[in-house]
Amino acid sequence: MAILHRVRESGYAEPVKAMGSGGGCPPSPARFPDENPNPVMRILGEGTLLRANRGSWLILSQWKASEGRPVPPDWAEAVRLSIESRASCERELQIGSTTYRLLIVPVADLGYADIFGLDVTGRKRVERKLRLDAQVFENAAEGIMIVDQDMRILDVNLSFQRITGYGRQEVLGRGPEILRSGSHDDVFYKQMWGEIKKTGRWQGEIWDRRKNGELYPKWLSISAVKDGDGQVTDYVGIFSDISTMKRTQEQIEYLSHNDSLTGLSNRPHFLDRLELGIEDARRTKDRVAVLFIDLDGFKQVNDTYGHRAGDKYLREAADRIRSMIRQSDTVARIGGDEFALILPHLAEVQNSTVAARKLQARMAEPIFIEEQEIYVSCSIGIAIFPEDAADAESLVQRASSAMKKAKELGKNCYRFYSPEMNTRVEEVLSLKAKIRRGIDLDEFLLHYQPQIDSKTGRVAGVEALVRWNSAELGMVYPDRFIGLAEETGMIDAIGEIVLRQACVQGRIWSEQGLPDIRIAVNLSAVQLRRSDFATVLETTISKHGMPPGGLEIELTESVMLVDDEVVMNQLHRLKEMGVDLAIDDFGTQYSSLAYLRLLPIDRLKIDRSFVKDLPTKGGNLAIAAAIVAMGHSLGLEVIAEGVETMGQGRSLASRGCDFLQGNLFSKPVPPETLRGLIDARVSLQPASRDEPVIEEPGFSVRSRAQFQGDGI
């Protein structure tokens, strides 16, 4: 026994010689270890204490015993059994905070036993701490991993195994890198270990991978363990899985911005997004629309079918609105059955009505609740920044006011906050309907403006300009309807009318024996992006007998910004068909000369903004001259439009501009009027007056004043 060894080393087990016959006599006092600080006692087999040294005082006090008196029965019994069995045994005695380990050594032949005690209080405290530490290690909620200096795993606890999915035997001797998720680069780990070596600890959030491959976030603390000399021997990593905490944080964050029933933005988040949209619109000079949406008759749904059915309908309404919006839009549930929608970057006010109409059509579709088909319409109020309000709260309030006005007007409609806006939008919608009827009734026709050859003074070509001779509105010019036609997609139908009439007119002039006249037609970018445009045009030219090479397509300069394979293929196909190509309004947008060389074009058209102040404005004259020189260097002809004075015409002609077009020569006229101008010739030589010199009959002399405001 461990204690016996230590007793022998101390000399406590010195054999005691018998005194006289019969035994049972105490040993000589001189031989009994009175000075030993540890307890030593001698007890007879029947339980009487024969001797005890001074180190036994605490035990004797506990037992209430003294020499010649009995010891407690349980200890007397222990002594008796030890003597009878002739076997030593150990027992533990706890007295207050002190713990003794007592060794009972029988001297059976003499009928007593010696008891040698050892104070093991300190060792017990250490053992208890070790047991406690072991329990803490194994039962800790956090995962614990111990690694040595060579980054080999020495031990892990149960929580490590539960969190990571790895068993203890799977990881012992391996490196911690088996847990790496790949979410952090080498720089991250280098900085982490640099901090540990510098301060002895590190803590932070890190993503790791479980045995099954699942990634998870954890909060990790790493501490260095040092020996008595301050040298690092091991590292202890303690971590907790914070997946649930992360999800809770995300849920709290979500609920702080979103409505719990529908998942849409809530009112505070909506107002934040609206403020940002307004700030952005101030920079870009765009508009922002707020649509305030209220479900008509929703109260009856609640009253009839209950709140559970009402909640279901609100969720369905939210899903329908969400399905109709763009990625840049924001929709929110403001409260009850009220929703609000932000439409940022609004180019045209009427675009908000398109959204309102689509929403009303979608909301009007039935929904089945409690096996009943229910119809609920909606009323929508619209407010526009900056016209109606300059801040988010005011804009929402005014959209709400407009919604209430829509309800007053009978529900299931939309209204703008501003009466003037309502009137303007209604006019636009009415004009769209009239354009559609005008297409059906073939009310669109062409006028032609001559293009004069600056060298010969004769008409070399004409530009076909569309007009709308409306039965209701009279003659309508393009600036009123082209934008709407492009927005609604009706530009395709108008473009086909223009091309058809131009081809028919070209054939008529050819049959009349007139000299070859090139007809230039403006082409919408929408038309050019149609993959079948070239095929449709080829069919139109062939069907109506347009003379070969008699058609020119004018493209806007923005075509050079479109890196679109479909567009480029269309342009090359047109060239193969013999159609000429011109860049209209040249110089007003980004002009890439490198890209210009790649386009199969024939002519550049100088924009009227560079012509109107000639010859007095030197800057415009320099720009026009540069465009002419550049065009000629690329083998292109150059046309100047907007020529209204003889001074402008002479300045351009003297700098080599090939063709001139403008009200100086003729405003756009019907084809029968143009017939009389074709044989005329214009002289650009200096004259006494700033007007054309007509050398042949049939070409009416017009001054600049007469054509002011005509437009083309």
Which architecture of the largest domain per CATH?
Alpha-Beta Barrel
The low-confidence parts are: 1-30, 687-712
**Beta content:** 15-25%
- Could you name the CATH topology of the largest domain? TIM Barrel
Described by strand count, sense and barrel closure, the largest sheet is:
8 strands, mixed, barrel
Q: Strands across the major sheet, in which order?
A: 18-19-21-22-23-24-25-26
- Overall morphology: elongated
- State the total count of DSSP E strands: 28
| Helical segment count | 24
The averaged pLDDT comes out at 84
Share in helix: 25-40%
The level 1 CATH classification of the largest domain is Alpha Beta
Q: State the end-to-end CA separation.
A: 120 Å
The chain-level structural class is alpha+beta
Radius of gyration, in angstroms, nearest whole number: 51 Å
Overall structural domain count: 4
- How would you name the oligomeric state of the polypeptide chains in this document? single chain
Brief synopsis:
This protein is of the alpha+beta class and 712 residues long. The chain is built from 24 helices and 28 strands. It folds into four domains: 2-124, Beta-Lactamase (2-Layer Sandwich), CATH 3.30.450; 140-246, 2-Layer Sandwich (Beta-Lactamase); 258-417, Alpha-Beta Plaits (2-Layer Sandwich); 434-707, EAL domain (TIM Barrel, Alpha-Beta Barrel), CATH 3.20.20.450.
